[in-house]
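Sample 3 of the quickstart, ligand coenzyme A:
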Amino acid sequence: MSAGALPEGGFAAALPARPLPPDGRRLQVDTQAGDIWVERLAGAALADRLEELAVLRLAVLGEFPYLYPGSAAYEERYLSGLGSLPGGLILAAFDRSRMVAAVTGAPLDQELDTLRDPFAHAGRDLRSIFYFGEVVVLPSHRGRGIGTALLETGESHIRETDRFTSAAFGEIVRSADHPRRPKTYRTPDAAWRRLGYRLEPEIGGTLSWCDAGDREETAKPLRFWVKSLATDIGA
Ligand SMILES: CC(C)(COP(=O)(O)OP(=O)(O)OC[C@H]1O[C@@H](n2cnc3c(N)ncnc32)[C@H](O)[C@@H]1OP(=O)(O)O)[C@@H](O)C(=O)NCCC(=O)NCCS
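Result:
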């Protein structure tokens, strides 16, 4: 499936319906969102949902601000690797039997050099930081608290390990007048702040890929959000 075009209505029809995950937990979201279930995907549950997860991620990552073309083969390799990585985390949210959102993450010391290096240069202890990769929510389900509730569920999983003192994630910085920025685009910054994440101006990096529709790879500036897990109030 092409990552650039988001099949809003077609997404649900693209894959067969599956039974609800047996170990799913109800996600604490606005009642307006209806019943949303979350399940940690690993082992057989991940194998069973791998294609659905790859399609969901490719659809959202193909949009602004990522504009990341990706490929199903790469996604499936990446997600299988993450599923078997000690400390790797994949949570998926379901509306009835359909996957509508997901978050991935791994210990920062297991991440790409391009993500580790900015923290190492800022003198941070990589072993104590859990790094969330991407939070992705289908457009049809945005603005109902699912993305932030998934991130909070991820935090509760990592708190249980007793290993991490902070959680972090990177954000692609796109210019305010980027030609492909949708007029309706809303930045989630205020929501990250409400969850206790703070921008760390002294930690900065870049990630490179060829934007969907472009011919050449370009470097995208990254800024990082960090939350102390010591308290719920944040860093
Ligand atoms: C960002 C994202 C994960 C948030 O998930 P969500 O389920 O919509 O999040 P919530 O309902 O918990 O709301 C969080 C914020 O998302 C923002 N948001 C982004 N798109 C939105 C939409 N279509 N409708 C409503 N809010 C939206 C809002 O600013 C909201 O903050 P607010 O409560 O202060 O208004 C989701 O919108 C998404 O997948 N977006 C595409 C990818 C992206 O932009 N990622 C951010 C890169 S850091």
